[in-house]
Amino acid sequence: MTNIVDCSASVADIQSGTTYQGNLRGTQFQYWRLFVNDSQAQQLFVEVDRNARTPAALPTIMIQKDGWPTEETNLGIVRDINTPSQHWELIVNSPTLTSGDWIIGVQGSLDQLFNYTIMAPICDCPRCCSGNGYCQDALPRDYCVCNPGYGGTADCSNPTVELTPLTPINLTVDAHGGSRFFRVDVPNDVAIAHTDLYVGAVRQGAADDGIRLYAAPGRFPTESDYWYISQLPDGPNARIVVPHADLYQAIWYFGVFNYASTSVAVVTQMDYEGWCPCVSGQGTCTEASPTVCSCKSGWQGAACDVKTGSSGTDGVEVGAVVAMVFIFLGVGFLFGVFIKHKKPGLCERGSPDVHDSITNEEL
Length: 363
Description:
Blueprint: H1 2-5, E1 10-14, E2 20-25, E3 29-36, E4 43-50, E5 60-65, E6 76-79, E7 87-93, E8 100-107, E9 113-119, E10 122-123, E11 133-136, E12 143-146, E13 160-162, E14 169-173, E15 178-185, H2 188-191, E16 195-203, E17 211-217, E18 228-229, E19 237-242, E20 251-258, E21 264-274, E22 283-284, E23 294-295, E24 299-300, E25 306-307, H3 311-342, H4 352-362
Parallel strand pairs: 1-3, 13-15
Antiparallel strand pairs: 2-9, 3-8, 4-7, 4-9, 4-10, 5-6, 5-8, 11-12, 14-21, 15-20, 16-19, 16-21, 17-18, 17-20, 22-23, 24-25
């Protein structure tokens, strides 16, 4: 570690939560010193990101308290061996995290330029909620409250994806219990339509272990806190059906967990299934008549799929009117023929005998 011996490595003092720029050439060292004076701090979270203009360097990042970190003496170390990474993290948790000077060392690789950014916030919550939430004071320890669109993990690092009917979503799920989460907002007309909610996940490619689905209303499901779970044993396909009786809960979260030793691509899709034929948003079924639609204003038909007064219904109404006109004309024609046959004199204008015949009959 010649840089330490000959004092050639730079040392810069940094503040918690502030981003700094670093650059190295070859196997040089660069050191960053952070003073921790919060005895109640739960975590020191160090993030290093590669600058895109230096794609090939294979750096090593180390940390030590009150001393220079080395490969032999450190409280945390990450390094690239063969494949360049884009992001590195070092985490020191309580009670290891104590007040004092913490030195972060970054070493470059042979004949390579390495430009990077570094940030080392002191957190009261895991990973400072990953920038996707805020830390809530609580006993026995603080916890993250995640922003909309994030959750499923204690550090708010997992983004959620909205599921809509018959729209497949293809995502990669990390190995060894990795998870991805989905959200379904159940419309009110669906919730009262006695229609079940179906979610299916299909693993792509070969599998040495399976995937599993969990579901919970209003919160992210975990392996110990859920309402529904896909059928065991795990396999390449996982399926959950939430019955209509539980869809009074307007928001549902679904988690796909991967227990394989490698990350996998999973296609997830949802839909509503059941016996109610109504078009969503245009009508609903009732418990008393689960197969009969009660249409909303402006809609009609067996499935509430025809607009009131649309061209299709207008054609039916016009056709009925025309038919009625022809019927009345036909009846009138037949009546006239009948009268002419029975009383031909009625159809002769100006005949003196007509009046006389009628008068005589009346007399």
